[in-house]
Amino acid sequence: MFLLNRNIQALLFISLFSICRIEAKSLTNYTTFNNAIDVNTAYFQGDSMHRLVLMKTIKGDFKDFSMDNLGNLYLIFSTNQIKKLDTNLDSVAIFNDTKRFGDLFTIDVSNPLKVLVFYKDFATVLMLDRQLNIKNVIDLRQQNIFQVAAISQSNDNNVWLFDEVEYKLKKIDNYGKLLMETPDFRLLFNDSHAFIPKYIIDNNNLLYLYHQNVGWKVFDYYGGFKTQYSFPNWTDVSVVDGFLKGHDQNNFFAERPKVLQSFKFTTNLDLKRAKKILVKQNIYYFLTKDGVEIYNSL
Question: Model pTM?
Answer without folding.
Answer: 0.82
